[in-house]
Amino acid sequence: MIDLYYWPTPNGHKITIFLEETGLAYRIKPVDIGKGDQFKPEFLAISPNNRMPAIIDRAPSDGGTEATVFESGAILLYLAEKTGRLLPGELRARMRVMQWLFWQVGGLGPMAGQNHHFAKYAPARIPYAIDRYRNETNRLYGVLDRELAKSPYVAGDYSIADIACYPWIVPHEDQGQDLDDFPHLKRWFEAIKARPAVTRAYAAGAPYGRRGPDFNALEREILFGQTATRPEAK
């Protein structure tokens, strides 16, 4: 059994997609990031960066005591190695997947995240920041589109690289991107969206989705106002 500390963000969706694809038993432990659940001591004990997702594996493959993992890319690698699924064993194929996983973790996710922040959540509109991150997101979509012209999936066969990237393309309209400008990416996006496991993964997160149109002032302070000297919700 996997305990998944989760909220329905792109990084959270990565893990439910993997779990649904592989059939691993899991239970969701909701972490309401608008209320500050990510700062609770019991969550910080497994995710010291106060970010979800995180997991507790109650039956790790080495037969030892429960294993905790934080950071979505690390969780995908851990679960892929645990199951022997969605990560090739052959050296070059494995490294191809790893490169694109790290590309998503270090590039697509952070840049799209800043795109969302300045376009939707920043208290003041800063045209330079909005243009900067929208343009960088566009560049990264182009990188992905060119790679997908070579093969049906991001790194050859369907893998954790696809699972990592897909949730960050779902909000493409909010990112100011038109998938018609990226035909190979659009073809891939529609294929991933149609996978039954992906449908189940998003359905699993639906009960935790936002009911209102935006974060209120307190939620914004919790999400965006923390520093090293204010490391927890007030």
UniProtKB/TrEMBL annotation:
Residue span, GST C-terminal domain: 90-215
Domain GST N-terminal: 1-87
UniProt-listed Pfam families: GST_C, GST_N
PROSITE patterns to which the protein is assigned, alphabetical: GST_CTER, GST_NTER
Superkingdom of the organism of origin: Bacteria
Stated family: Belongs to the GST superfamily.
Protein's recorded name: Thiol:disulfide oxidoreductase
Natural source organism: Methylocystis parvus
